[in-house]
Give the backbone structure.
Amino acid sequence: MVFCAIKFKKFYALAFFHTFVTQMTIQYKRILASILFVLISFICSAQGGPILPPPGTPPPPPGLPIDGGVFLGMVFALFYGVKKLVLKREIS
């Protein structure tokens, strides 16, 4: 008798689920899928991720400054340009 009652309850639950699913329209299925997707994403984001170690120290600055070299290069370029102009005028 007890075994028969358990079988009947399982059958009744399956019959209700089958009726519920078959009577759902596509719109209701999409709404249900959207709600489940949102709930699952909340559960996944609630999980604590691994604790990352602090970032390392920044690299040291370069050993040679470029500001003095740039100024010196501009001076040499200016002298070279003037020298070329002077030699060109002398030849012409």
About this structure: Confidence is low (pLDDT under 50) at residues 1-5. The chain has one domain: 2-47+66-91. The helical segments are 2-23, 26-46, 67-91.
